[in-house]
């Protein structure tokens, strides 16, 4: 039933037209005069699992209602956004202080939560990447130094000068 409604009213891409490097989807749906008439939509026949043909009007209440053109959600919850413009590049420090303050002062109703995103998420991803990349880079530099000097001790002294002295 859901597929009949979404494809008939909203349309379904069934193919793609290729013109040189450009591609255009071919969308099939009911004609505007059919999909704008409630009585005609109630008469759309839906196939049941037992192969019976039942009009949509007998299976569901069909009505028009005004609403947003798109409902945006994150993790199946409706989001609200607060944008901050910081005078610092230390997003991690700001988020730590702000999170602590919010946990102390803000009481969220059941089902509500807050999440930091954008630059803070980028910073967290970069830190995770560096945890992998830096050891690999130091190991490669160590190997190169060992190949040049043929000495483990000299390679270690050059990589970690303050540790070895």
Concise summary:
The protein is an alpha+beta fold and 165 residues long. The relative contact order is 0.05.
Notes on the protein architecture:
With 165 residues, the chain is of the alpha+beta class. It has two domains: 58 residues, Multidrug efflux transporter AcrB TolC docking domain, DN and DC subdomains (2-Layer Sandwich); 74 residues, no CATH class. It is 48% helix and 13% strand. The protein has eight helices and four strands, in the order αββααββααααα. Strands 1-2 form a two-stranded antiparallel ribbon. The protein has a two-stranded antiparallel ribbon with strand order 3-4. Helix 6 packs antiparallel against helix 7. The radius of gyration is 30 Å and the shape is elongated. The relative contact order is 0.05.
Radius of gyration: 30 Å
Structural class: alpha+beta
The end-to-end span amounts to 76 Å
Number of strands: 4
Low-confidence segments:
none
Q: Helical segment tally?
A: 8
The geometry reads as elongated
Mean pLDDT: 85
Characteristics of this structure?
two-stranded antiparallel sheet, 165 residues, alpha+beta, Multidrug efflux transporter AcrB TolC docking domain, DN and DC subdomains, 8 helices, 13% strand, 2 domains, elongated, two-stranded antiparallel ribbon
Topology:
Layout: H1 2-10, E1 12-19, E2 22-28, H2 32-35, H3 38-42, E3 45-47, E4 53-55, H4 56-59, H5 91-105, H6 119-149, H7 152-159, H8 161-164
Antiparallel strand pairs: 1-2, 3-4
Helix pairs in contact: 6-7
